[in-house]
Amino acid sequence: MTSCKTEQKNDKTPTTENKKPNIVFIMSDDHAYQAISAYSDKLIKTPNIDRLANEGMLFNNASVTNSICAPSRAVILTGKHSHLNGKIDNLSAFDTTNVTFPQLLQNAGYQTAMFGKLHFGNNPKGFDEFKILPGQGNYYNPKFITQKGDTTINGYVTDITTDLALDWLKNRRDTEKPFLLMYLHKAPHRAWYPAEKYYKEYTKKTFPLPETLFDNYEGRVAAKTAEMNILKHMHLAYDNKIDQEVLKKLNIFDGMGRSETKRMTPEQRSRWDSVYNPIIADFEKRYPTMDDKQLMEWKYQRYLQDYLGTIASVDDNVGRMLDYLDEEKLSDNTVIIYTSDQGFYLGEHGWFDKRFMYDESFKTPLLIKWPNKITAGTTEDEMVQNLDFAQTFLEIAGVNAPDDMQGESLVPLLKGQKEKWDRDAVYYHYYEYPAEHAVKRHYGIATKEFKIIHFYHDIDTWEFYDRKKDPQEMHNLINDKNYADEIAEMKQKLKETREKYKDSETLDNQYIELYKDKKKRH
Ligand code: SGN
Ligand code: CA
């Protein structure tokens, strides 16, 4: 009797009203699928993120519609392409009159909370609670925007974001209601500052060089003029953490200084210096005799050490979240998603950053666990997009999606009902130009076999790739006579796809005019 009473009092016991699945949406910022061991363990082991693949589904062909931060988030929240939700780049404002899926879930009785990076320049609507980073946010001792004002929290951003999310789950969530938790990491965004444990470990590692590290961009006009080459455009101080005074001594003037070291407490700073100062001293000694190839390789290793070091913390913290959901017996009725706002170049084509429709930044990691619905350990090769998330979550919650959302619910794929999925092409459109990294505006479509891309604005060039024969996208076949039929078909399909999604040259031109003078960054 007594034990039975205790059980009834325990407010964590699922009630009949609590049958709708909870949704935990985990997203990191710039997390390349090449840096998740469920995809490839060449660079790093991510045992916690991999749990979602082992217990759920791994998508091999998930892509974004516009490979840059805030636009990707706007697509996710609205279920509409950039040209319709209006958030075409990181410079324009998010139009808060857009209807977002969290608002619809909140109206349907879901509790909603968001923690971490949003990057809109305005606060999210449809959330009972949010604690978000201003703009890009910081790694060390970050400031957060909350409903009660701004607050600075001492510590490391990835740990803090998790603490905030867990605090809400433990202490302020109404256990009678289903919930949507958006748990959004800043890491591994530039300028890649790992936590102490991991800069100690990762600065000792060396990584295999990508085959295309020394790409000369032959046949790809827009790739040639982009400014995201590790050798030429990555900063030795800002990115690779070399002291600017040392650079001056070496006659190197590369502008931007280190961003986060100034934010560290004296204790954090002296622990940081104890690891990075020997690296700086070693660089000072070796630099005078380095040729371009050696400098490229040195910068690549430094880049990956810090980038992957930040991911090791993300993985630990995802583990903390999954453990909590397991311990509280919430996992059985919770859909957990892990994704990134887009992919990233880890030296492929000699690059860092994203923006292009080439695979490393067009594709994004996607792992989903949904016990009793998804068969554990399955992989899915269908072409899905971040555009599909809103309708997926609405279907999971039993809420009708507005007619003007443009994605497809992934629920049939999650349940293994492939016959209900008939998409044969996905659409992409990138706008942020002129801007940092100088990636020209372009749009295109990808099928499983081919990709066609049109670069426009101050150029007018086309690219065509055979994705099966040339997965590294080194050979632009647009002028290859052997592919004339396939190119014509893809051009036609691109035209139809633009019409289907209501994109057009008129809109392209309007967006060029509208944001001509926009320089502001969020
Ligand atoms: C910053 C970075 C860029 C990066 C953009 C967009 N520069 O501007 O390298 O492409 O963010 O990233 S930095 O000098 O400020 O580090 S996004 O993920 O927010 O879209
Ligand atoms: Ca990003």
UniProtKB/TrEMBL annotation:
<dbReference type="InterPro" id="IPR017850">
    <property type="entry name" value="Alkaline_phosphatase_core_sf"/>
</dbReference>
<feature type="coiled-coil region">
    <location>
        <begin position="480"/>
        <end position="507"/>
    </location>
</feature>
<keyword id="KW-0378">Hydrolase</keyword>
<protein>
    <submittedName>
        <fullName>Sulfatase</fullName>
    </submittedName>
</protein>
<dbReference type="InterPro" id="IPR002591">
    <property type="entry name" value="Phosphodiest/P_Trfase"/>
</dbReference>
<keyword id="KW-0175">Coiled coil</keyword>
<comment type="similarity">
    <text>Belongs to the sulfatase family.</text>
</comment>
<dbReference type="InterPro" id="IPR024607">
    <property type="entry name" value="Sulfatase_CS"/>
</dbReference>
<feature type="region of interest" description="Disordered">
    <location>
        <begin position="1"/>
        <end position="20"/>
    </location>
</feature>
<dbReference type="Pfam" id="PF16347">
    <property type="entry name" value="SGSH_C"/>
</dbReference>
<dbReference type="GO" id="GO:0016787">
    <property type="term" value="F:hydrolase activity"/>
</dbReference>
<dbReference type="Pfam" id="PF01663">
    <property type="entry name" value="Phosphodiest"/>
</dbReference>
<feature type="domain" description="N-sulphoglucosamine sulphohydrolase C-terminal">
    <location>
        <begin position="347"/>
        <end position="499"/>
    </location>
</feature>
<dbReference type="InterPro" id="IPR032506">
    <property type="entry name" value="SGSH_C"/>
</dbReference>
